[in-house]
């Protein structure tokens, strides 16, 4: 038996969000994984963040789509520099029975194992790191940004800079665990210019984050297929379709 991976989808963030919504609305009948790389930059805000006229105007001037996702958290600038991996779990699957900390820790370990095999040094987070990140985020007025603070299950560089962000969408017909890995550096100043009209906050966000290319010394183009293959090898067998 060999793994038959769903191929990497290269497309827009609105299309990805639509795909996630469609799967959850139809009902998750079997575990599955969606690998997605964005073909253009876009700003996505958390479900509790309502874009105002200023944000929409600045996004339009920058040529960026601006939308809200169905999960919580802060604003994210997505683009070709990010690999998005969504794990869909049926509501009756044992993993879906975990509480939010347990289910994020389950995915965190898969990411850590994957990144280590691919030569990307990293580690998980603990409560002290989470608490400290929230204090720093508050002090620097960065609570609006998803990648400004840490939460359970996320992955960081060995010196504590965020590498993989997580979000959860839990519906009656299934669970979607959405994770974003920065393959190479994001344009943090562009994100802060659109969301808070202050590109200087981008420098603070840059200091709080890292990326796989910088940490490994390997190009994102080389890492990408290896990351997908290795992630599939570390996730439980029932999440990956098998063929003879």
Explained architecture:
The protein is an alpha+beta fold and 244 residues long. The chain has a single domain (2-243), classed as 2-Layer Sandwich (BirA Bifunctional Protein, domain 2). Helix content is 37%, strand content 23%. The chain contains eight helices and twelve strands. It has helices spanning 13-26, 53-61, 100-117, 127-139, 188-196, 201-208, 212-216, 220-234; strands at residues 2-3, 9-11, 32-38, 42-45, 66-68, 76-78, 82-89, 123-124, 155-156, 162-171, 174-182, 242-243. A seven-stranded mixed β-sheet has the order 2-3-7-11-10-9-8. The chain has a three-stranded mixed β-sheet with strand order 5-4-6. It has a two-stranded antiparallel ribbon with strand order 1-12. A hairpin with a 5-residue loop joins strand 9 and strand 10. Helix 5 crosses helix 6 (201-208). The chain is globular, with a radius of gyration of 17 Å. The model has no long low-confidence stretch (mean pLDDT 92).
Offer a few descriptive terms.
244 residues, 37% helix, globular, 8 helices, seven-stranded mixed sheet, BirA Bifunctional Protein, domain 2, three-stranded mixed sheet
What is the topological layout?
Blueprint: E1 2-3, E2 9-11, H1 13-26, E3 32-38, E4 42-45, H2 53-61, E5 66-68, E6 76-78, E7 82-89, H3 100-117, E8 123-124, H4 127-139, E9 155-156, E10 162-171, E11 174-182, H5 188-196, H6 201-208, H7 212-216, H8 220-234, E12 242-243
Parallel strand pairs: 2-3, 4-5
Antiparallel strand pairs: 1-12, 3-7, 4-6, 7-11, 8-9, 9-10, 10-11
């Amino acid at each position: 038996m060999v793994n038959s991976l769903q191929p990497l989808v290269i497309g827009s963030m609105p299309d990805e969000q639509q795909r996630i919504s469609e799967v959850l609305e139809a009902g998750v009948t079997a575990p599955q994984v969606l690998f997605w790389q964005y073909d253009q930059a876009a700003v996505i805000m958390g479900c509790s963040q309502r874009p105002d006229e200023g944000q929409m105007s600045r996004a339009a001037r920058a040529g960026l789509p601006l939308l809200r996702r169905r999960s919580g958290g802060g604003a994210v600038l997505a683009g070709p520099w990010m690999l998005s991996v969504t794990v869909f779990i049926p509501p009756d699957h044992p993993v879906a029975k975990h509480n939010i900390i347990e289910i994020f820790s389950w995915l965190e370990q898969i990411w850590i194992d994957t990144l280590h095999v691919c030569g990307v040094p990293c580690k998980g987070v603990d409560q002290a790191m989470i608490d400290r990140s929230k204090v720093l985020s508050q002090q620097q007025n960065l609570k609006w940004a998803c990648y400004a603070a840490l939460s359970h299950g996320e992955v960081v560089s060995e010196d504590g800079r965020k590498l993989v962000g997580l979000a959860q969408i839990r519906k009656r017909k299934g669970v979607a665990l959405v994770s974003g890995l920065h393959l190479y550096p994001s344009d943090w100043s562009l994100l802060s210019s659109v969301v808070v009209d202050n590109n200087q906050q981008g420098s603070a966000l840059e200091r709080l984050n890292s990326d796989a290319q910088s940490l490994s010394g390997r190009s994102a183009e080389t890492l990408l297929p290896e990351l997908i293959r290795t992630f599939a090898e570390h996730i439980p067998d029932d999440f990956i379709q098998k063929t003879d």
